[in-house]
């Protein structure tokens, strides 16, 4: 998607079109299942890989090859895609070669588990961002970085940004000017506290993965304007802003997994109904979580009514309800329409109930 190989079709999402392409290539042995035992991992067939390297010699290069021959140095001006294995020995001299590849569209590092992180290579790589202004794909996943420079705002063509498992605490405001950004991967960023307040400007954003970003305090106002969102792993409802759960109503294309945190802050059940989960047929996994703290002043009937209004679509396959302290079950719990649900785990205050269909444990 980020490279522009997949186009939106009238009745299909880009992700679905890309899935069809991948399955077609896999059926022709262009890709094959990895031998690591993980069913979701694929590799290129050795012969296809050799052919691809020959065909792409003029537009792709790997830093690890060190580009010793003069022909490759000349082709750096035409290079569009690059990858490298991050090792301790990489320093300024190793990365200087990228200054000759000013038209790079892809920059992907691959980490070697046996090597520790190199702060030198991390800082040098960050300094490159102001130079490589044609980038569409940038991954700094697992880098030992705590901040991203404002120069990332210069990458106007950027469509895919992966900062997963970094030490980043806050993203720069300039990120809100990346109007072409489609995918923002922030999985496992446990120090991340805030997202840019101008995220509502990212009208092309389709995937926002903040899974296990446990320090994140809130979702920026205006997330409901990102109507192209397909992935929103977590929506945080903050105190005195429970009405903002309404913003989910505009995100009609959400699919996959969705977690709703801080549901105890929703004071009006009608706001929960406006989230319109019942019409989000692409959602397969849904988690609902209330605060673990016990507030005796809170009306537990409201909590029950809120969950009642958050009835999901019948296509749901997995449901988690955590720290629920309501006075009873939502009316849709146990509805036979949810025949696709294979896991249902609910934590309640007083009740412990077990059948072949539902598993409910004490809070």
Could you please describe the fold and organization of this structure?
With about 375 residues, this protein is of the alpha/beta class. It has a domain at about 50-135. It contains seven helices and 17 strands. It has helices at about 15-25, 45-55, 70-75, 90-95, 120-125, 270-275, 300-310; strands at about 30-35, 40-45, 60, 80-85, 105-110, 135-140, 160, 185, 205-210, 230, 235, 255-260, 280-290, 320, 345-350, 355, 360. The strands form three sheets. Strands 3-4-5-6-7-8-9-10 form an eight-stranded parallel sheet, with no helix packed on it. Strands 11-12-13-14-15-17-16 form a seven-stranded mixed sheet, with no helix packed on it. A two-stranded antiparallel sheet has the order 1-2. It is globular and about 70 Å long. The two termini are about 45 Å apart. About 30% of the residues are buried.
Q: Give average pLDDT, whole number.
A: 81
Distance between the termini: 43 Å
CA-atom Rg in angstroms: 23 Å
| Helicity level | 10-25%
Number of strands: 17
Please provide the ordered H/E string of secondary-structure elements: HEEHEHEHEHEEEEEEEHEHEEEE
How would a crystallographer describe the biggest sheet?
Answer: 8 strands, parallel
Q: Summarize this, please?
A:
This protein has 363 residues and is of the alpha/beta class.
Name its key features.
7 helices, globular, eight-stranded parallel sheet, seven-stranded mixed sheet, alpha/beta, single chain
Topology, please?
Elements: H1 14-27, E1 31-33, E2 42-44, H2 46-55, E3 60-62, H3 70-75, E4 81-86, H4 92-95, E5 106-111, H5 119-127, E6 137-139, E7 160-162, E8 183-185, E9 207-209, E10 231-232, E11 234-236, E12 255-261, H6 269-274, E13 282-289, H7 300-309, E14 318-322, E15 343-348, E16 353-354, E17 359-362
Parallel strand pairs: 3-4, 4-5, 5-6, 6-7, 7-8, 8-9, 9-10, 11-12, 12-13, 13-14, 14-15, 15-17
Antiparallel strand pairs: 1-2, 16-17
